């Protein structure tokens, strides 16, 4: 019976893998299998979920190979990363799509069978360091997400506009009140001007009336005196 030296074998597949999706990256942590007594490292490849055999333009930034079987497509992966430990962080996978992850253990004699994680969906927008591979490109999508500084600026502008509107309203109300006051004031002055001369002229006319009556009386008295004499 021929025995094969384990030093000339590829490593065993990874035993188990877990996912953790936080606000900055998708973390993949795996438990390695047997290394066959040789140094090994680990490789992770990302491919899109599949519907048909053709490559469909899923968006302006990502082309996803598609197929009904849900197996890995024949095209190259959209993302590939290597690490000395079976732990990976995936930055800037586009949300809204299902991905298939394949993790390999690799040594100088080859790589193990893949540990596959299918139907991995990204909920939040992740990082920006996706590499170009085989014509499939993921670009930076962070520019379409408003950051906290932009939100704060919008709030400040809204507050300033609100204060400005309130001040303008107060100014308009004060202006209307002043205009109404100026409109009513000349009428009162005109009424005072009309009553005062009438009162003064009456005082001036009164002595003339008295003088005329006394003159008439004196004339009547002199008339009676002349008659008596005659």
TrEMBL record:
Transmembrane regions listed in the UniProt entry: 153-178
Q: Which InterPro entries match?
A: FN3_sf
Bias (Polar residues) ranges: 220-230
Q: Where is this region: Disordered?
A: 210-230
Please identify the protein, giving its name as recorded: Fibronectin type-III domain-containing protein
Top-rank taxon of the source lineage equals Eukaryota
Q: Which UniProt keywords apply?
A: Membrane, Transmembrane, Transmembrane helix
């Amino acid at each position: 019976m021929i025995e094969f030296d384990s030093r000339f074998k590829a490593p065993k597949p990874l035993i188990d893998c877990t996912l953790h999706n936080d606000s900055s990256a998708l973390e993949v942590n795996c438990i390695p299998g047997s290394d066959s007594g040789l140094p090994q490292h680990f490789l992770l490849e990302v491919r899109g979920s599949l519907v048909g055999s053709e490559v469909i333009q899923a968006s302006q930034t990502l082309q996803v190979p598609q197929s009904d079987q849900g197996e890995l497509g024949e095209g190259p992966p959209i993302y590939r990363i290597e690490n000395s430990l079976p732990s990976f962080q995936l930055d800037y996978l586009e949300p809204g799509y299902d991905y298939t992850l394949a993790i390999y253990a690799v040594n100088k004699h080859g790589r193990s069978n893949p540990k596959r994680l299918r139907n991995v969906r990204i909920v939040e927008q992740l990082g920006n360091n996706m590499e170009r591979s085989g014509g499939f490109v993921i670009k930076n999508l962070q520019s379409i997400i408003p950051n906290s500084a932009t939100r704060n600026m919008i709030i400040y502008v809204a507050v300033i506009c609100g204060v400005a509107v309130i001040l303008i309203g107060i100014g308009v109300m004060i202006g209307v009140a002043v205009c109404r006051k100026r409109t009513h004031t000349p009428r009162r002055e005109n009424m005072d001007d009309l009553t005062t001369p009438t009162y003064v002229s009456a005082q001036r006319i009164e002595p003339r009336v008295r003088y005329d009556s006394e003159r008439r009386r004196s004339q009547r008295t002199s008339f009676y005196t002349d008659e008596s004499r005659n």
